Amino acid sequence: MKKDIEELNNLRVELVSAIASLKEERDRLEKTRVEISKVEKTNLMAMAATYDKMDPASAGTILTNMSKTQTSTPNDAIKILHYMTDRTRANLLAELSNAEPALAAYFCQKLKQMVEEK
């Protein structure tokens, strides 16, 4: 009986440890997500429509500079990319991969982590 109690206590400790580890991992993953609020969505869609009308090189230059300024974050550029048409986004990323391959790869990686508020 004592052996069973000890084994149950050990399992309980393992379970608590596993739960804590899962919570930490969930928190880490949530921090990597790029979230778009409902309020922000309308403005981003309008901005993306503007970038859709530009040539890929010009749009890429602006988004590159936007992601490098101190008043902005790379997430702002990623949010705009998210709302661009697929074709324009592809052309822009292709153009950007020539000038800033690391930034283009970063944008592609972050685009996978887009989450819209519902």
Count the E strands.
2
Instruction: Find the structural class using helix and strand composition.
Output: mainly alpha
H and E string? HEHHHHHE
Widest sheet: strand order?
1-2
Number of domains: 2
User: What composes the largest sheet?
Assistant: 2 strands, parallel
Number of helices: 6
Instruction: Tell me the β content.
Output: 5-15%
For the record, the CATH architecture of the largest domain stands as Orthogonal Bundle
Indicate the low-confidence ranges by residue numbers: none
Mean of residue pLDDT values: 88
The N- to C-terminal Cα distance equals 52 Å
CATH class of the largest domain: Mainly Alpha
Helix content: over 70%
CATH topology of the largest domain: Annexin V, domain 1
- Can you tell me the overall shape? elongated
* CA-atom Rg in angstroms: 22 Å
Short description:
The chain has 118 residues and is mainly α. Helices cover 81% and strands 5% of the residues.
Structural commentary:
The protein has 118 residues and is mostly helical. Helices cover 81% and strands 5% of the residues. It folds into 2 domains: 1-32; 35-116, Annexin V, domain 1. It has helices at residues 2-32, 38-53, 56-68, 74-83, 86-99, 101-111; strands at 34-36, 114-116. It has a two-stranded parallel sheet. The model has no long low-confidence stretch (mean pLDDT 88).
Q: What structural keywords apply?
A:
single chain; mainly alpha; 118 residues; two-stranded parallel sheet; 81% helix; Annexin V, domain 1
